[in-house]
Specification:
Blueprint (H helix, E strand, L loop, with lengths): L1 H12 L4 H12 L3 H13 L4 H20 L5 H14 L14 E6 L7 H12 L3 E4 L6 H10 L4 E5 L3 H16 L7 E5 L5 H7 L3 E2 L3 H12 L3
Parallel strand pairs: 1-2, 1-3, 3-4, 4-5
Helix pairs in contact: 1-4, 2-3, 2-4, 4-5, 4-6, 5-6, 6-10, 7-8
The structure holds cobalamin (B12).
The site of cobalamin (B12) has 32 residues, from helix 4, helix 5, helix 6, strand 3 and helix 8.
């Protein structure tokens, strides 16, 4: 997966001030706030377009996700990179993310304040061209359901990091079913205690172990590139 994405990005970014933009992904993987800021500023000064900067950010975040999965990065490092990238996303022209026409509502369930994995996922959904409504952490079942209706979501992404909060994923799916809202909605669940078996047991459509595979699954499930 990472190789394909990296190859696509490499092809797309060839001859476009490659030195500056290649440093963006590397600085994200190094989880160094100052370096991330400096490499993005330099790329902008050299008039590299937002579109290419975003591709490079996506590539960097993919590396972070895979680095965590391989045990090459510490969570605290990933948290710094993720939060910093999240804080600068509003600097970019939204059009540069692309728009595949599909909408995702994302959040961490009620009682749970863990946000690093959720935010990593949220940024990667955004940079992959989805319309993303990130409700944050400690989100009530009611707020998830309201947001699904309000934004006419195609996919709901529910994060739970504790065994005691996983049950909220089930409650939300049950409520969606009761209200007749589940039929046209894909529900994806994840978080470190969540498993494929749990996803099946509670009637979720998909489970993914990490952000990189979540993006791939979401794209396949919604039929977008
Ligand atoms: C960092 C951390 C904290 C930080 C959170 C900071 C923050 N802003 O997020 C702080 C210190 C605040 C914290 C607090 C607590 N924590 Co804590 N925390 C962690 C820790 C060490 C890392 C979590 C993390 O950020 N991982 C990095 C990210 C990138 O990984 P991730 O979240 O798993 O996400 C990836 C995948 O899971 C997946 N994914 C995530 N969400 C989704 C959603 C979908 C739809 C999909 C497809 C995929 C997906 O993609 C992500 C990226 O690849 C974990 C240990 C662990 N190994 O998970 C404990 C852990 C989750 N915490 C734990 C506990 C108990 C707590 C506290 C109750 C501690 C306390 N006594 O106060 C409080 C809870 C407060 C609350 N109400 O939520 C326990 C939970 C145990 C359990 N199984 O129930 C853990 C497992 C530690 C442990 N071994 O005991 N914690």
């Amino acid at each position: 997966m990472e190789n394909n994405v990296e190859n696509n990005i490499k092809n797309n970014t060839e001859n476009k001030n490659a030195d500056e933009i290649l440093q963006i992904a590397e600085s994200i993987y190094k989880c160094d706030k100052d370096l991330i800021e400096k490499s993005i500023d330099e790329a902008r000064i050299k008039k590299v377009s937002d579109k290419y900067i975003i591709e490079e950010i996506t590539k960097g975040l993919l590396k972070v996700s895979n680095g965590l999965a391989d045990g090459k990065l510490y969570m605290s490092q990933a948290g710094i990179a993720t939060k910093f990238v999240d804080s600068i996303m509003n600097k970019f022209d939204k059009k540069s993310f692309g728009n595949n026409g599909k909408t995702i509502v994302i959040g961490t369930v009620e009682g749970d304040i863990h946000d690093i994995g959720k935010t990593l996922l949220s940024i990667m959904f955004k940079t992959s061209g989805f319309n993303v409504y990130d409700l944050g952490t400690d989100v009530s079942n009611e707020n998830f359901i309201e947001a699904v209706q309000k934004y006419d979501a195609d996919l709901l992404s529910l994060s739970a990091l504790m065994t005691i909060t996983m049950i909220k994923q089930k409650e939300i799916i049950d409520e969606l079913n009761e209200k007749g809202l589940k039929e046209n909605l894909i529900v994806m669940v994840g978080g470190s205690p969540v498993t494929k078996d749990w996803a099946k047991e509670i009637g979720a459509d998909f489970y993914a172990e990490n952000a990189a595979s979540a993006i791939k699954i979401a794209k396949e499930a919604l039929g977008v590139k």
